[in-house]
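Give me structure tokens for this 284-residue protein.
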Amino acid sequence: MARIAVVGSINMDLVTRTRRRPRAGETVLGTTFATVPGGKGANQAIAARRAGAAVDFVGAIGTDVFGAELRKVLADNEVGTAGLRTVEGSSGTATIVVDETGENTIIVVGGANAALSDLTDGDRALIADADIMLCQLEIPVDTVLGAARCARDHGTLVLLNPSPARSLPPELWEAVDIAVVNEGEAAQLDAELRTVTHVLTTRGGAGASYRGPEGELAHPGVRVEVVDTTGAGDTFTGALAAHWHEGPATALAWACTAGALATTVVGASASIPTAAAIERALAE
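Here you go.
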């Protein structure tokens, strides 16, 4: 079983479903509303755990009504919370609008995630004990860099999902072993990604591709009836990390299958499939 340390964001997702997303200045009627625990870091942590890895989470929640619920969802999914701190103020939120095709628009407010400005000795110990340290960009970049440097110092692989895409310091890219990007991020970060040993690019319903020392690989994806694409990329990344030790081809198959299954259920963390569900789909 792989051991993964996730250093990242945890949010409460505020999800509205509507027939179509509004244009600028337009009001449309929604059909449903729900609050669903999410955040790229938490989603990826839960996805990795459900895919079979042992996972510890380093992050921050607020003192608002969402904080206790966010901590509980990690614990209920058997994700270690020794690195989860509580800071004064609001937890992170993501306002998500999903249309009838399953496509979404998302606005993220960092809240407590922005307060994750440094690592404790306990955080560093979790990273040092892990096989893979998994990060995204919904927390301060300096914290991501510190976590990556800690991982490198202890022989822990660094997997970065550089989303939301932005300019990053060269020393962070130098510490990255594996990058997971979508097609838009791949185009935006093309020059930086050339320095990364392993690069995986997600292609929505068309699956994903890999480039690295193993050569080039592609997985065509899994045909499903799409309900909501929220969290599918995070599910892909978490499952990939959980099975990376089995080689890029196996990890890619697990990741594509998990990501596809996640689109069949509404919500982010609520849609993440279990290892048993992924194995059944892989066997079909």
